[in-house]
Amino acid sequence: MRLVLVKHSLPEIDPRLPAAQWHLSDEGRRRARLLAAALVPYQVQEILSSQEPKAAETARIAAETLAVPVCLHPGLHEHLRQTIRYMEKEQFEAHVRRFFSCPQELVFGEETAAQAAGRFSRALDEALKGGTADSAAVVAHGTVISLYVSQVCGVDPFDLWKRLGLPSCVILSLPERRIDALIEEIA
């Protein structure tokens, strides 16, 4: 089986709202259509998605273009950080770096890295359980994708997180759980 982990497309940033409520920008919708073309070689037969608007919109656009079903699943959402206000890039990256380097400590948001990784992994297993597709795509978020790939493939989560653009893909072979390809950004 092949698993394609997709970081959602480019959102419309609204500093007044938590990032979990952001929707795609016009450019993000354009990139989501390009994402569908990038998924064709992986013969994706279904798309599973986080319920957050930017991920769900990315999944729906790609699924419509590919003519495959899409299903939203609880638990595939980003690291919980509803109480975190909008930050400039450098400050945000510093917090994310600390988040990855102190996985058992609550250092950023409402969930530790270990808690977010466990929740995402369980939700992913549940979403994939009983599926008949040999190749599935899961549209989610950079932090939880990086945590998951770090756990199963032994890569540095912060380094991977920095490489993932909007959108981007990590293609894993299962059950071997190895990285077959990394598409850093689809633009």
Explain what this protein looks like in three dimensions.
- The structure is a single chain.
- Helices cover 41% and strands 17% of the residues.
- With 187 residues, it is of the alpha/beta class.
- The protein has a single domain (2-183), classed as Phosphoglycerate mutase-like (Rossmann fold, 3-Layer(aba) Sandwich), CATH 3.40.50.
- Helix 1 (26-39) packs across helix 2, helix 4 packs across helix 5 (142-153) and helix 5 (142-153) crosses helix 6.
- The radius of gyration is 15 Å and the shape is globular.
Assembly type of the chains comes to single chain
Work out the helicity level. 40-55%
- Structural class label: alpha/beta
Largest sheet: 6 strands, mixed
CATH superfamily: Phosphoglycerate mutase-like
**Could you say which overall geometry the principal axes of the C-alpha atoms support?**
globular
Task: State Rg.
Answer: 15 Å
Q: How many structurally independent domains?
A: 1
Extract low-pLDDT stretches.
none
Q: How many β-strand stretches?
A: 6
Q: Which range does the strand content fall in?
A: 15-25%
Task: Name the helix and strand elements from N-terminus to C-terminus, one letter apiece.
Answer: EHEHEHHEHHEE
Could you please say which CATH topology applies here? Rossmann fold
CATH class descriptor name: Alpha Beta
What is the CATH-assigned architecture?
A: 3-Layer(aba) Sandwich
Query: What distance lies between the first and last C-alpha atoms, to the nearest angstrom?
Result: 27 Å
